[in-house]
Specification:
Length: about 500
Protein backbone atom coordinates (compact mmCIF):
# COMPACT_ATOMS: atom_id res chain seq x y z
CA UNK A 1 0.00 0.00 0.00
CA UNK A 2 1.06 3.58 -0.45
CA UNK A 3 3.14 5.42 2.11
CA UNK A 4 1.07 8.22 3.60
CA UNK A 5 2.87 11.32 4.81
CA UNK A 6 1.72 12.74 8.13
CA UNK A 7 -1.06 15.30 8.20
CA UNK A 8 1.44 18.13 8.42
CA UNK A 9 2.25 17.29 4.81
CA UNK A 10 -1.05 18.81 3.71
CA UNK A 11 -0.14 22.03 1.98
CA UNK A 12 -1.60 24.62 -0.31
CA UNK A 13 -0.14 25.70 -3.59
CA UNK A 14 -0.20 29.38 -2.56
CA UNK A 15 1.15 31.89 -5.04
CA UNK A 16 2.99 29.42 -7.22
CA UNK A 17 0.12 28.03 -9.23
CA UNK A 18 -2.89 30.18 -8.56
CA UNK A 19 -5.78 29.87 -6.18
CA UNK A 20 -4.53 28.36 -2.99
CA UNK A 21 -5.51 24.72 -2.63
CA UNK A 22 -4.77 22.41 0.26
CA UNK A 23 -2.57 19.53 -0.77
CA UNK A 24 -1.97 16.06 0.57
CA UNK A 25 1.45 14.57 -0.20
CA UNK A 26 1.41 10.85 -0.81
CA UNK A 27 4.11 8.54 -2.17
CA UNK A 28 3.01 5.91 -4.64
CA UNK A 29 6.23 4.11 -5.55
CA UNK A 30 5.15 0.86 -3.90
CA UNK A 31 1.41 1.27 -4.36
CA UNK A 32 -0.15 -1.84 -5.78
CA UNK A 33 -1.25 -1.36 -9.35
CA UNK A 34 -4.98 -1.15 -9.89
CA UNK A 35 -6.33 -3.38 -12.62
CA UNK A 36 -8.04 -1.18 -15.19
CA UNK A 37 -10.34 -2.00 -18.06
CA UNK A 38 -8.81 0.23 -20.71
CA UNK A 39 -11.27 1.73 -23.22
CA UNK A 40 -9.89 0.19 -26.40
CA UNK A 41 -12.02 2.24 -28.81
CA UNK A 42 -11.06 5.51 -27.14
CA UNK A 43 -7.39 4.54 -27.12
CA UNK A 44 -7.63 3.74 -30.79
CA UNK A 45 -9.11 7.21 -31.38
CA UNK A 46 -6.26 8.76 -29.38
CA UNK A 47 -3.78 6.86 -31.53
CA UNK A 48 -5.48 8.07 -34.71
CA UNK A 49 -5.32 11.71 -33.61
CA UNK A 50 -1.73 11.30 -32.47
CA UNK A 51 -0.81 9.85 -35.88
CA UNK A 52 -2.58 12.62 -37.80
CA UNK A 53 -0.67 15.26 -35.85
CA UNK A 54 2.62 13.50 -36.47
CA UNK A 55 2.01 13.20 -40.21
CA UNK A 56 -0.01 16.29 -41.14
CA UNK A 57 0.68 19.10 -38.66
CA UNK A 58 2.28 22.14 -40.26
CA UNK A 59 5.50 21.63 -38.28
CA UNK A 60 7.17 18.51 -36.82
CA UNK A 61 6.20 17.84 -33.22
CA UNK A 62 8.14 15.68 -30.78
CA UNK A 63 6.37 12.67 -29.30
CA UNK A 64 7.35 13.84 -25.82
CA UNK A 65 5.57 17.17 -26.27
CA UNK A 66 2.38 15.55 -27.58
CA UNK A 67 2.22 13.06 -24.75
CA UNK A 68 2.92 15.70 -22.11
CA UNK A 69 0.16 17.94 -23.48
CA UNK A 70 -2.20 14.96 -23.57
CA UNK A 71 -1.51 14.37 -19.88
CA UNK A 72 -2.01 18.07 -19.16
CA UNK A 73 -5.34 18.05 -20.96
CA UNK A 74 -6.48 14.91 -19.19
CA UNK A 75 -5.94 16.52 -15.78
CA UNK A 76 -6.96 20.13 -16.43
CA UNK A 77 -10.21 18.88 -17.97
CA UNK A 78 -11.19 17.43 -14.58
CA UNK A 79 -11.22 20.59 -12.46
CA UNK A 80 -9.21 23.83 -12.11
CA UNK A 81 -6.89 22.40 -9.44
CA UNK A 82 -5.82 19.03 -10.84
CA UNK A 83 -2.61 19.31 -12.87
CA UNK A 84 0.57 17.66 -14.05
CA UNK A 85 3.64 19.07 -12.32
CA UNK A 86 6.93 18.93 -14.19
CA UNK A 87 10.19 19.32 -12.31
CA UNK A 88 10.03 23.11 -12.21
CA UNK A 89 6.38 23.25 -11.18
CA UNK A 90 7.02 20.65 -8.47
CA UNK A 91 9.86 22.77 -7.06
CA UNK A 92 7.70 25.91 -7.22
CA UNK A 93 5.00 24.14 -5.24
CA UNK A 94 7.36 23.54 -2.35
CA UNK A 95 8.96 27.00 -2.55
CA UNK A 96 5.58 28.75 -2.35
CA UNK A 97 4.81 27.37 1.10
CA UNK A 98 7.95 28.88 2.63
CA UNK A 99 6.68 32.44 2.29
CA UNK A 100 9.41 33.54 -0.12
CA UNK A 101 9.51 33.30 -3.89
CA UNK A 102 10.46 35.38 -6.91
CA UNK A 103 7.83 37.12 -9.01
CA UNK A 104 5.13 39.77 -8.99
CA UNK A 105 2.94 38.76 -6.06
CA UNK A 106 -0.34 37.77 -7.71
CA UNK A 107 -2.72 34.95 -6.86
CA UNK A 108 -4.25 33.83 -10.14
CA UNK A 109 -6.77 31.43 -11.62
CA UNK A 110 -7.90 30.52 -15.13
CA UNK A 111 -10.97 31.83 -16.94
CA UNK A 112 -11.98 31.82 -20.61
CA UNK A 113 -8.48 30.81 -21.64
CA UNK A 114 -6.85 33.75 -19.87
CA UNK A 115 -5.33 34.34 -16.44
CA UNK A 116 -7.60 36.03 -13.91
CA UNK A 117 -6.36 37.75 -10.77
CA UNK A 118 -7.84 36.29 -7.60
CA UNK A 119 -5.97 38.74 -5.38
CA UNK A 120 -2.72 40.70 -5.32
CA UNK A 121 -0.54 39.92 -2.31
CA UNK A 122 -0.02 42.87 -0.01
CA UNK A 123 3.27 44.78 -0.18
CA UNK A 124 4.31 43.27 -3.53
CA UNK A 125 4.94 44.84 -6.97
CA UNK A 126 1.47 43.84 -8.20
CA UNK A 127 -0.25 45.35 -5.16
CA UNK A 128 1.70 48.58 -5.36
CA UNK A 129 1.07 48.93 -9.11
CA UNK A 130 -2.68 48.76 -8.60
CA UNK A 131 -3.49 45.27 -9.94
CA UNK A 132 -6.92 44.31 -8.60
CA UNK A 133 -8.90 41.17 -7.93
CA UNK A 134 -10.95 40.32 -11.01
CA UNK A 135 -8.46 41.74 -13.53
CA UNK A 136 -8.08 39.53 -16.59
CA UNK A 137 -4.43 39.34 -17.72
CA UNK A 138 -4.47 39.03 -21.51
CA UNK A 139 -0.82 39.75 -22.38
CA UNK A 140 2.65 39.58 -20.85
CA UNK A 141 4.88 42.01 -22.70
CA UNK A 142 3.91 41.25 -26.30
CA UNK A 143 2.87 37.64 -25.70
CA UNK A 144 -0.83 36.80 -25.63
CA UNK A 145 -1.92 34.51 -22.80
CA UNK A 146 -4.93 33.19 -24.71
CA UNK A 147 -4.79 29.43 -24.42
CA UNK A 148 -1.61 29.41 -22.32
CA UNK A 149 -1.85 27.03 -19.37
CA UNK A 150 -1.95 28.55 -15.91
CA UNK A 151 1.37 26.96 -14.90
CA UNK A 152 3.08 28.28 -18.05
CA UNK A 153 1.65 31.76 -17.46
CA UNK A 154 3.00 31.72 -13.90
CA UNK A 155 6.44 30.72 -15.23
CA UNK A 156 6.38 33.68 -17.63
CA UNK A 157 5.48 36.09 -14.82
CA UNK A 158 8.34 34.86 -12.71
CA UNK A 159 11.89 35.98 -13.34
CA UNK A 160 14.99 37.50 -11.87
CA UNK A 161 14.48 40.33 -9.37
CA UNK A 162 14.68 43.85 -10.82
CA UNK A 163 13.62 42.75 -14.30
CA UNK A 164 10.52 44.36 -15.77
CA UNK A 165 7.40 42.87 -17.31
CA UNK A 166 4.40 44.60 -18.83
CA UNK A 167 0.96 43.25 -17.99
CA UNK A 168 -2.03 44.10 -20.17
CA UNK A 169 -5.29 43.56 -18.32
CA UNK A 170 -8.98 43.84 -18.96
CA UNK A 171 -10.90 45.35 -16.06
CA UNK A 172 -14.63 45.38 -15.59
CA UNK A 173 -16.21 48.74 -16.50
CA UNK A 174 -13.06 49.85 -18.36
CA UNK A 175 -13.56 50.37 -22.09
CA UNK A 176 -9.89 49.86 -22.98
CA UNK A 177 -7.22 47.43 -21.73
CA UNK A 178 -4.90 48.77 -19.03
CA UNK A 179 -1.11 48.44 -19.13
CA UNK A 180 1.00 48.00 -15.99
CA UNK A 181 4.78 47.84 -15.96
CA UNK A 182 5.95 45.85 -12.93
CA UNK A 183 9.46 45.26 -11.66
CA UNK A 184 9.92 41.72 -10.37
CA UNK A 185 11.07 41.30 -6.81
CA UNK A 186 11.74 38.59 -4.25
CA UNK A 187 8.30 38.18 -2.73
CA UNK A 188 8.51 37.76 1.03
CA UNK A 189 5.06 37.40 2.46
CA UNK A 190 4.77 38.29 6.12
CA UNK A 191 1.85 36.12 7.09
CA UNK A 192 0.80 37.67 10.42
CA UNK A 193 0.42 41.37 11.19
CA UNK A 194 -1.16 42.83 14.32
CA UNK A 195 -2.02 46.22 15.81
CA UNK A 196 -4.21 47.80 18.45
CA UNK A 197 -7.35 49.40 17.05
CA UNK A 198 -8.39 51.04 20.31
CA UNK A 199 -7.56 50.35 23.95
CA UNK A 200 -8.68 46.79 24.56
CA UNK A 201 -9.46 45.99 20.93
CA UNK A 202 -6.88 44.39 18.64
CA UNK A 203 -6.55 43.36 15.01
CA UNK A 204 -4.68 40.29 13.75
CA UNK A 205 -4.37 40.02 9.97
CA UNK A 206 -3.24 36.76 8.34
CA UNK A 207 -2.27 37.21 4.69
CA UNK A 208 -1.36 33.57 4.00
CA UNK A 209 -1.10 30.34 5.96
CA UNK A 210 2.62 29.57 5.96
CA UNK A 211 4.90 27.19 7.84
CA UNK A 212 5.29 29.45 10.88
CA UNK A 213 1.91 31.21 10.85
CA UNK A 214 0.72 29.45 14.02
CA UNK A 215 3.84 30.45 15.95
CA UNK A 216 3.67 34.01 14.61
CA UNK A 217 0.03 34.22 15.69
CA UNK A 218 1.01 33.33 19.25
CA UNK A 219 3.61 36.11 19.28
CA UNK A 220 1.19 38.65 17.80
CA UNK A 221 -1.66 37.90 20.22
CA UNK A 222 0.68 37.97 23.22
CA UNK A 223 1.98 41.38 22.12
CA UNK A 224 -1.58 42.71 21.89
CA UNK A 225 -2.37 41.44 25.37
CA UNK A 226 0.76 43.11 26.74
CA UNK A 227 -0.18 46.40 25.09
CA UNK A 228 -3.65 46.25 26.63
CA UNK A 229 -2.42 45.47 30.14
CA UNK A 230 -3.14 41.74 30.10
CA UNK A 231 -6.80 41.84 29.10
CA UNK A 232 -8.60 42.26 25.80
CA UNK A 233 -12.19 43.32 25.21
CA UNK A 234 -12.33 42.03 21.67
CA UNK A 235 -10.24 40.72 18.80
CA UNK A 236 -10.65 40.95 15.01
CA UNK A 237 -9.13 38.18 12.89
CA UNK A 238 -8.81 39.53 9.34
CA UNK A 239 -8.73 36.83 6.64
CA UNK A 240 -9.74 39.04 3.72
CA UNK A 241 -7.73 38.51 0.51
CA UNK A 242 -6.14 35.45 2.13
CA UNK A 243 -5.86 32.77 -0.59
CA UNK A 244 -5.06 29.91 1.79
CA UNK A 245 -1.88 27.99 2.50
CA UNK A 246 -0.72 25.16 4.71
CA UNK A 247 -3.52 23.10 6.19
CA UNK A 248 -1.74 22.40 9.47
CA UNK A 249 -1.39 26.16 9.95
CA UNK A 250 -5.13 26.60 9.41
CA UNK A 251 -5.73 23.97 12.08
CA UNK A 252 -3.32 25.82 14.39
CA UNK A 253 -5.10 29.16 13.96
CA UNK A 254 -8.45 27.51 14.63
CA UNK A 255 -7.09 25.62 17.64
CA UNK A 256 -5.76 28.87 19.13
CA UNK A 257 -9.35 29.95 19.78
CA UNK A 258 -11.17 26.61 20.15
CA UNK A 259 -11.33 24.07 23.00
CA UNK A 260 -8.81 21.24 22.90
CA UNK A 261 -9.78 18.40 20.55
CA UNK A 262 -12.62 20.37 18.96
CA UNK A 263 -13.24 19.26 15.37
CA UNK A 264 -11.76 21.78 12.92
CA UNK A 265 -12.41 20.17 9.52
CA UNK A 266 -13.01 16.79 7.96
CA UNK A 267 -12.57 15.49 4.43
CA UNK A 268 -14.45 12.89 2.45
CA UNK A 269 -13.42 11.15 -0.76
CA UNK A 270 -13.49 7.78 -2.50
CA UNK A 271 -10.40 6.29 -0.85
CA UNK A 272 -9.59 5.65 2.79
CA UNK A 273 -6.63 8.05 2.62
CA UNK A 274 -8.98 10.82 1.50
CA UNK A 275 -11.09 10.60 4.68
CA UNK A 276 -9.65 12.53 7.61
CA UNK A 277 -10.81 14.29 10.74
CA UNK A 278 -8.55 17.09 11.95
CA UNK A 279 -9.09 18.33 15.50
CA UNK A 280 -7.55 21.01 17.69
CA UNK A 281 -4.66 18.94 18.98
CA UNK A 282 -0.88 19.23 18.71
CA UNK A 283 -0.67 16.22 16.41
CA UNK A 284 -2.61 18.07 13.72
CA UNK A 285 -0.66 21.33 13.63
CA UNK A 286 2.86 20.88 15.03
CA UNK A 287 5.43 19.67 12.52
CA UNK A 288 7.72 17.15 14.14
CA UNK A 289 6.78 14.77 16.93
CA UNK A 290 9.29 16.20 19.41
CA UNK A 291 8.52 19.89 18.98
CA UNK A 292 6.77 21.85 21.72
CA UNK A 293 3.13 22.82 21.46
CA UNK A 294 3.54 26.51 20.72
CA UNK A 295 -0.18 27.17 21.28
CA UNK A 296 0.38 26.46 24.98
CA UNK A 297 1.90 29.97 25.09
CA UNK A 298 -1.33 31.65 23.95
CA UNK A 299 -2.91 33.94 26.59
CA UNK A 300 -5.60 32.11 28.54
CA UNK A 301 -8.12 34.75 27.50
CA UNK A 302 -7.76 33.85 23.82
CA UNK A 303 -10.22 30.99 24.28
CA UNK A 304 -13.00 33.31 25.44
CA UNK A 305 -12.21 36.80 24.10
CA UNK A 306 -15.05 38.09 21.86
CA UNK A 307 -13.91 37.36 18.32
CA UNK A 308 -14.92 38.61 14.86
CA UNK A 309 -13.54 37.09 11.64
CA UNK A 310 -13.47 39.28 8.51
CA UNK A 311 -13.77 37.52 5.13
CA UNK A 312 -14.46 38.43 1.51
CA UNK A 313 -14.62 36.83 -1.92
CA UNK A 314 -10.86 36.27 -2.03
CA UNK A 315 -10.76 34.41 1.30
CA UNK A 316 -10.11 30.88 0.07
CA UNK A 317 -9.22 27.34 1.10
CA UNK A 318 -7.44 27.41 4.48
CA UNK A 319 -9.14 30.75 5.26
CA UNK A 320 -12.52 29.14 4.73
CA UNK A 321 -11.57 26.22 6.96
CA UNK A 322 -10.77 28.61 9.83
CA UNK A 323 -13.88 30.75 9.29
CA UNK A 324 -16.11 27.68 9.01
CA UNK A 325 -14.70 26.03 12.14
CA UNK A 326 -15.02 29.15 14.29
CA UNK A 327 -18.50 29.79 12.95
CA UNK A 328 -19.80 26.27 13.48
CA UNK A 329 -18.49 26.17 17.04
CA UNK A 330 -20.11 29.58 17.59
CA UNK A 331 -16.74 30.85 18.73
CA UNK A 332 -16.67 33.84 16.36
CA UNK A 333 -19.00 36.05 14.37
CA UNK A 334 -18.19 36.17 10.65
CA UNK A 335 -18.50 39.58 8.98
CA UNK A 336 -17.89 40.53 5.34
CA UNK A 337 -18.97 38.86 2.11
CA UNK A 338 -19.29 35.29 0.82
CA UNK A 339 -15.92 33.53 0.61
CA UNK A 340 -14.30 32.03 -2.50
CA UNK A 341 -15.55 28.45 -2.18
CA UNK A 342 -12.31 26.48 -2.58
CA UNK A 343 -13.24 23.36 -0.65
CA UNK A 344 -11.44 20.52 -2.41
CA UNK A 345 -8.34 18.55 -1.39
CA UNK A 346 -5.49 17.96 -3.79
CA UNK A 347 -3.18 14.97 -3.33
CA UNK A 348 0.36 15.18 -4.67
CA UNK A 349 1.27 11.84 -6.26
CA UNK A 350 5.01 11.72 -7.00
CA UNK A 351 6.15 10.40 -10.39
CA UNK A 352 9.60 9.43 -11.70
CA UNK A 353 12.17 12.16 -12.46
CA UNK A 354 10.92 14.57 -9.76
CA UNK A 355 7.57 15.06 -11.42
CA UNK A 356 4.12 14.67 -9.89
CA UNK A 357 0.39 14.64 -10.43
CA UNK A 358 -1.76 17.03 -8.40
CA UNK A 359 -5.13 15.31 -8.20
CA UNK A 360 -8.34 16.39 -6.49
CA UNK A 361 -9.23 13.54 -4.13
CA UNK A 362 -11.68 14.87 -1.54
CA UNK A 363 -13.90 17.71 -0.37
CA UNK A 364 -13.61 19.75 2.81
CA UNK A 365 -16.48 19.93 5.30
CA UNK A 366 -16.93 22.22 8.27
CA UNK A 367 -17.52 20.71 11.72
CA UNK A 368 -21.26 21.16 11.19
CA UNK A 369 -21.19 19.13 7.97
CA UNK A 370 -21.27 21.94 5.40
CA UNK A 371 -19.43 21.47 2.15
CA UNK A 372 -17.17 24.44 1.39
CA UNK A 373 -16.70 23.49 -2.27
CA UNK A 374 -18.24 25.93 -4.79
CA UNK A 375 -20.24 27.52 -1.95
CA UNK A 376 -17.86 29.12 0.49
CA UNK A 377 -18.67 30.41 3.94
CA UNK A 378 -21.66 32.72 4.29
CA UNK A 379 -20.99 35.48 6.82
CA UNK A 380 -23.29 36.02 9.77
CA UNK A 381 -23.47 39.68 8.75
CA UNK A 382 -22.95 40.72 5.14
CA UNK A 383 -21.00 43.97 4.98
CA UNK A 384 -19.93 45.08 1.52
CA UNK A 385 -17.15 47.57 0.89
CA UNK A 386 -17.94 49.56 -2.24
CA UNK A 387 -14.69 51.51 -1.88
CA UNK A 388 -12.91 48.47 -3.32
CA UNK A 389 -13.37 46.76 -6.65
CA UNK A 390 -15.99 44.09 -6.06
CA UNK A 391 -14.50 40.61 -6.22
CA UNK A 392 -16.65 38.63 -8.63
CA UNK A 393 -14.41 35.62 -9.36
CA UNK A 394 -15.15 32.63 -7.14
CA UNK A 395 -14.61 28.90 -7.36
CA UNK A 396 -18.05 28.42 -8.87
CA UNK A 397 -17.03 30.72 -11.74
CA UNK A 398 -14.00 28.64 -12.74
CA UNK A 399 -14.32 26.34 -15.72
CA UNK A 400 -14.71 22.64 -14.85
CA UNK A 401 -15.05 23.44 -11.14
CA UNK A 402 -15.90 20.51 -8.89
CA UNK A 403 -19.55 20.61 -7.91
CA UNK A 404 -20.33 21.30 -4.29
CA UNK A 405 -22.79 19.30 -2.25
CA UNK A 406 -24.87 19.86 0.84
CA UNK A 407 -23.34 17.02 2.79
CA UNK A 408 -25.05 17.27 6.16
CA UNK A 409 -27.72 14.77 5.14
CA UNK A 410 -25.86 13.25 2.17
CA UNK A 411 -22.93 11.92 4.17
CA UNK A 412 -25.18 10.54 6.89
CA UNK A 413 -27.19 8.69 4.26
CA UNK A 414 -24.06 7.26 2.64
CA UNK A 415 -22.65 6.21 6.01
CA UNK A 416 -25.91 4.54 6.97
CA UNK A 417 -25.93 2.65 3.68
CA UNK A 418 -22.35 1.54 4.26
CA UNK A 419 -23.13 0.53 7.84
CA UNK A 420 -20.73 3.10 9.32
CA UNK A 421 -21.47 5.08 12.50
CA UNK A 422 -22.45 8.65 11.86
CA UNK A 423 -19.94 11.39 12.58
CA UNK A 424 -20.69 13.57 15.57
CA UNK A 425 -21.37 17.03 14.22
CA UNK A 426 -22.39 20.28 15.81
CA UNK A 427 -26.14 20.71 15.84
CA UNK A 428 -27.21 24.05 14.46
CA UNK A 429 -24.90 26.49 12.73
CA UNK A 430 -24.91 30.23 12.79
CA UNK A 431 -25.34 30.44 9.04
CA UNK A 432 -24.70 28.56 5.85
CA UNK A 433 -25.08 28.56 2.10
CA UNK A 434 -28.60 29.57 1.25
CA UNK A 435 -29.25 31.10 4.67
CA UNK A 436 -30.39 34.65 5.07
CA UNK A 437 -28.02 37.16 6.54
CA UNK A 438 -28.46 40.84 7.29
CA UNK A 439 -26.66 43.22 4.97
CA UNK A 440 -25.27 46.63 5.72
CA UNK A 441 -25.34 49.17 2.94
CA UNK A 442 -21.84 49.99 1.64
CA UNK A 443 -20.61 53.51 1.79
CA UNK A 444 -21.08 55.24 -1.53
CA UNK A 445 -18.01 55.58 -3.67
CA UNK A 446 -16.68 59.14 -3.89
CA UNK A 447 -17.84 61.17 -6.85
CA UNK A 448 -15.36 62.45 -9.35
CA UNK A 449 -13.32 61.46 -12.34
CA UNK A 450 -13.33 57.66 -12.60
CA UNK A 451 -9.96 57.41 -14.33
CA UNK A 452 -8.38 59.55 -11.64
CA UNK A 453 -9.90 57.40 -8.94
CA UNK A 454 -8.35 54.28 -10.49
CA UNK A 455 -4.90 55.83 -10.19
CA UNK A 456 -5.17 56.34 -6.45
CA UNK A 457 -2.36 54.68 -4.53
CA UNK A 458 -3.74 51.29 -3.39
CA UNK A 459 -1.93 51.80 -0.11
CA UNK A 460 -3.63 55.14 0.50
CA UNK A 461 -5.60 55.17 3.75
CA UNK A 462 -9.36 54.94 3.33
CA UNK A 463 -12.25 54.07 5.56
CA UNK A 464 -12.53 50.35 6.09
CA UNK A 465 -16.27 49.84 6.51
CA UNK A 466 -15.92 46.12 7.21
CA UNK A 467 -13.33 46.64 9.93
CA UNK A 468 -15.41 49.44 11.42
CA UNK A 469 -18.43 47.15 11.46
CA UNK A 470 -16.38 44.47 13.25
CA UNK A 471 -15.13 46.91 15.87
CA UNK A 472 -18.63 48.29 16.47
CA UNK A 473 -20.02 44.77 16.77
CA UNK A 474 -17.44 43.95 19.46
CA UNK A 475 -18.55 47.07 21.32
CA UNK A 476 -22.14 45.89 21.24
CA UNK A 477 -23.32 48.20 18.48
CA UNK A 478 -25.71 46.18 16.27
CA UNK A 479 -25.07 45.98 12.55
CA UNK A 480 -28.19 47.52 11.04
CA UNK A 481 -29.31 45.97 7.75
CA UNK A 482 -29.80 48.15 4.72
CA UNK A 483 -33.37 49.54 4.59
CA UNK A 484 -34.46 47.47 1.61
CA UNK A 485 -32.52 44.20 1.90
CA UNK A 486 -32.37 41.08 3.95
CA UNK A 487 -31.38 38.93 1.01
CA UNK A 488 -30.39 35.31 0.70
CA UNK A 489 -26.67 34.82 0.43
CA UNK A 490 -25.68 33.28 -2.88
Amino acid sequence: MGIKFNQAGLVAIGAALGVAASLHFSAVADRQATTLQLPVDDLRLFSEVFGRIKSDYVEPVEDKKLLKEAINGMLTGLDPHSAFLDQEAYRDLQVGTQGEFGGLGIEVGAEDGFVKVVAPIEDTPAFRAGIKAGDLIIKLDDTSLKGVSLSDAVKKMRGKPNTEVRLTVLRKDEAQPLDFVLRRDVIRVKSVKARMLEPGYGLVRITQFQEHTGENLVTAVNDLYKQSGGEMKGLVLDLRLNPGGLLNSAVAVSAAFLPKNALVVYTDGRTEDARMRLVASKENYVRGAFKDDYLAKMPAGSKTVPLVVLVNGASASASEIVAGALQDHKRATIIGTQTFGKGSVQTILPLPNNQAVKLTTARYYTPGGRSIQAKGIAPDHVVEDAAENRIVLREVDLQHHLAGEDDKEGKAARDAKAGKPADKVIAGTTSGPGATAPRIAPKAAPKGDKAAAEKVDPNAKKEDVQLNAALNFLKGVPIAPAPTTTAAVK
